[in-house]
Amino acid sequence: MEADTVKLGETQAFSGFSVNDIQAARKFYEETLGLKVSEENGLLTLHLAGGRDVLAYSKEDHVPATFTILNFPVRDVEKVVDELTARGVRFERYPQFAADTDAKGIFRGEGPLIAWFKDPAGNVMSIIQQES
């Protein structure tokens, strides 16, 4: 008799990342970014549009991700950059993209408009312009 086959492609997989301060992360994601967030057993769940959830967990020896861990597609990057800047978000300016990055931190080189920022734990995120 053959054992049941594991079909991970049929599970509701989700992603996660670490932070060094759950309460600071919760305040940032809820108040600054305006996301719906829940907390259970010391873990944050970021409830994203389309029924997608992302887990944020505390890690004592947290090291910030050096790559983009979460992308937020928006219709108007410039408008969102202005709104988030007013809420205290600082947009990153990377030396390798300096020639194509404007004063607001919007990369206007090849590909879609994109602006990178960090959460309180130093993890890199972006807003990226998409038409739909």
From TrEMBL:
Every VOC domain range: 11-130
The species this protein was found in: Pyxidicoccus fallax
Protein name: VOC family protein
